[in-house]
Amino acid sequence: MLSILRVFPSLPRQHNSSVQTRGWLMALELTPAQKAAIEIHDRDLIVVAAAGSGKTHVLVQRFIQLLLNDFTQPLNAIVAITFTRKAAQEMRDRVRQELLKLLDGEEDARRRDAYQRWISQMDSARIQTIHSLCSDILRTNAAVVDLDPAFEVLEEGDAYLLQERAIEETLRAIALEMDDALTDLSEVKLIAEHGLFAVRNALKRAAFSGIVEEIPSDGDLFDLWVDTWEQYVFDSAKRVIASPLTQDVLSIPAPNNLQDKLWLVVNAVQQNLSRLKSTLAQDEFDPDEIIEALEAAKAIDLRGGSAKSWGGKEFITHYKDILKAFRKELEALQLVTISKLDEHAAYNQTLWLSLISRIQKRYQTLKQNASALDYDDLERYTCELLEGAQGEAVRNRYSGELRHILVDEFQDTSQIQWRIIKALAPPSGLFVVGDPRQSIYAFRGADVSVFGHVQRAIEHGGGQTIELARSFRSHHRLVDVINHIFSQILYRDEHSPVRDYEIAYGQPIEAARLDAPTNKPPVELLLLKPESKDDVDDKYVWEAYEIAERIQQMINAKLPIYDKRKQEIRPIEYGDIAVLFRRTTHLSTYEDAFKDVGLNYVTLGGSSFFKRQEIWDVLNLLRAVYNPQDNLSLAVALRSPLFGFSDDMLYRLRRNTNNTLWDVLFSEDLDGFPPDDLKLLAVARACLQHLQRHIGRMLIADLLNHALSVTGYLATLSSLQGGNRLRRNVEKLVEIARMSGKVMLGEFLRYIEDITDREVRESEAALTPEDAVQLMTVHASKGLEFPVVIIADAVGTGIRGSGDLLVRDGNSWACKVNITPTELEAPFYYTYLSDLQKAREIAESRRLFYVAATRAQDYLIISSYVEKTENVSGKDTWLGWLWDALELDSTSGNPNIEGVEIIYRDTPPRRGERRAASQTSLWDKAEIRQLKPFSEQARPPAGLATVHTEPTAIARHLSASHLADVGTVAWGDERERPRYKRRLLSNLRQDAPSLIRLATLPRVTRPASARQIGEIVHAALRHWRFPDQTPNMGDILRGYASQVGLMTDKAIDWATRQAEELLMQFQDSELYQQAEDARTRGEPFYTELPFIYPVGQRLIHGVIDLLFKHYGQWHIVDYKTTTLWKGQDLETHARRYHLQVGVYAAATWRYLESFGESQPPQVHIHYIRYGRSILVPTEVWQKEVGAIEHHIKQVMDIQEAQ
Question: Fewest 10 Å CB contacts: which of 879, 998, 1016, 1201?
Answer without folding.
Answer: 1201
